[in-house]
Specification:
Length: about 250
């Protein structure tokens, strides 16, 4: 099993954002996390990546307990994450951003100058750009990229660190319908080609049901249901708590 959480619990003041959650994400799986606003989805990711310390429970990655490792150590272990908010250097080009990430990954921040990169860094950065279809804007400054391309750059920055598990928090947020489908198709193709274990949070149910092989539903910090799209679609508890709400009504 690639990624597993056992009895994960995290409270903020009196609110249990994640409440005794146990889930498994098998190696190579593509899973969507869904649930109403405030269900604990982002907190769940933050506990897996180490952005927040857990109150109780464990995060197990490839058989190793990583619960108390730092964020950076988890990245080195192979747990990657792209953020909802662009996390790049805005005045650097796409390629320069990726070269910085590749250089940091190989542990040579002293050699960050893009004028004299380490051998292979430019090539690797270009390879990562191609993985997400950003080679067409490799020389464009990050700050002037379209919203969709900025999200792709976030994903590419995570990929530069060679994750085996990739967590994507709302990869299609803020996009129009067409751009959403283009984005999720790229994500799906990436998962297929790179043989990643991919977990993504998504509110658009059309996307979730057509892309994810497996779905986990969180509600009030607990696991409400898990299963295939067909199982989740017909699960009465999920319909009552989430799918039946106005926003997601068919
Ligand atoms: N850093 C924090 N400090 C205090 N409370 C927090 C913090 N992060 C999350 N929470 C609370 O934890 C609960 C779960 O929030 P979380 O952001 O994980 O939900 P979510 O499912 O990702 O929601 P959304 O779909 O709206 O992004 C909410 O009640 C939220 O207010």
């Amino acid at each position: 099993m690639s990624l597993e959480v056992r009895n994960l619990t995290k409270a903020f003041g009196g609110v249990k954002a994640i409440d005794d959650v146990s889930l498994v994400f098998p190696t190579g799986s593509l899973t969507a996390i869904i649930g109403p606003n405030g269900a604990g989805k982002s907190t769940f990711f933050n506990l897996i990546t180490g952005a927040f310390p857990v109150d109780h429970g464990q995060v197990i990655f490839e058989g190793r307990d990583v619960t108390h490792l730092s964020r950076a150590a988890r990245v080195r272990e192979g747990i990657g994450r792209a953020f909802q908010v662009a996390s790049c250097f805005p005045t650097m080009t796409v390629l320069e951003n990726l070269m910085a990430a590749v250089t940091s990954h190989i542990g040579r921040w002293g050699n960050l100058s893009h004028r004299a990169p380490l051998p292979g860094v430019r090539e690797r950065a270009m390879e990562v750009a191609e993985m997400v279809g950003l080679e067409r804007v490799a020389d464009v400054e990050a700050s002037i990229l379209s919203h969709g391309d900025q999200k792709l750059l976030d994903i590419a920055l995570a990929l530069a660190l060679e994750p085996r598990v990739l967590l994507l928090d709302e990869p299609t947020a803020g996009m129009g319908p067409e751009e959403r489908w283009r984005m999720i198709e790229r994500v799906r193709a990436l998962w297929e080609r790179q043989k990643l274990t991919l977990v993504f949070i998504e509110h658009d149910m059309d996307i979730v049901f057509s892309v994810a092989a497996s779905i986990r539903v969180l509600c009030y910090g607990r696991v409400l249901a898990e299963g295939t799209p067909d199982e989740i679609r017909s699960n009465q508890a999920v319909i009552d708590a989430y799918l039946g709400t106005e926003e997601h009504a068919a």
